[in-house]
From TrEMBL:
Presence of the UniProt keyword Signal in the record: yes
Stretch forming the signal peptide: 1-22
Annotated protein name in UniProt: Uncharacterized protein
This protein's UniProt keywords: Signal
Lineage start: Bacteria, Bacillati, Bacillota, Bacilli, Bacillales
Top-rank lineage group of the source organism: Bacteria
């Protein structure tokens, strides 16, 4: 049975080692219909053998080096059926004006997964951007220099609870969110988000239900109100 690897351990293993890229090859060819599922492959490099996970997208094939991404290597060491686990992984491309980035979904239990974000060039870190969550979408800033990654956790008795991660694509950094008008936070899966919008290239606004707290009772009452009132919280960014 697969088990969750604690997030604190994963964070210590997230960085790629050395100067080689985590995504070591992009083949701009259309993969065969029979090769859509990700597979574990092995390549001989001089006297060493190196393992990669190969993903087939619509118009390219991506190889992710396990050696350069310790988090994946350690995770796969802890599962009993690597082939089955790898087949369930999903790689999504997020296209921006300057370059594409790639979001890897893995370690899923009951539709909640962990997510690694990859930059396709040399000497870049792979970031663990979410754990025990579901990717709900991405929103690029107007000039496409930043991207909001939206994640959710599902609750049977109330609306999904959400959070976001903001990435500076030009400098490849995760950004901290600042809200100067309130000490309360709606992040970290505490509130359901109704909408996420960019105000400009350096700030966003998130709409949430206008209630005291997101309890099942208050959320049910709010949903029963036509055009229920909302609150818009504005966030600006700083580099971590």
């Amino acid at each position: 049975m697969m088990k969750w690897i604690p997030l604190v351990i994963l964070l210590l293993l997230t960085g790629c080692s050395g100067s080689a890229p985590a995504i070591i090859e992009k083949i701009d060819t259309v993969p065969d219909e029979t090769e859509k599922e990700p597979v574990l492959i092995e390549q001989q490099e001089e006297e060493e053998s190196e393992e990669f996970i190969e993903f087939s997208l619509e118009d390219e094939q991506i190889l992710i080096s396990l050696k350069m991404v310790p988090i994946l290597n350690e995770y796969l060491k802890g599962v009993s059926n690597r082939k089955q686990v790898i087949n369930k992984m999903h790689l999504e491309r997020i296209s921006a004006e300057s370059h594409d980035i790639y979001l890897l979904e893995f370690s899923c239990v009951h539709d909640l997964c962990s997510y690694l974000l990859f930059h396709p060039t040399n000497e870049k870190l792979a970031y663990l951007v979410a754990d025990i969550a579901k990717f709900s979408g991405s929103i690029l800033s107007p000039n496409e220099s930043k991207v909001v990654l939206h994640f959710s956790r599902f609750h049977a008795s109330i609306s999904n609870l959400d959070t976001i991660v903001v990435v500076d694509l030009d400098n490849w950094k995760l950004l901290s969110l600042n809200n100067e008008k309130s000490n309360d936070t709606i992040l970290n899966y505490r509130w359901p988000f109704l909408s996420i919008d960019w105000l400009d290239n350096d700030s966003i606004t998130i709409a949430t239900p206008d209630i005291i707290e997101p309890t099942p009772e208050l959320l049910t009452e709010w949903h029963e109100i036509e055009d229920g009132p909302t609150i818009h919280t504005i966030f600006s960014f700083t580099s971590d």
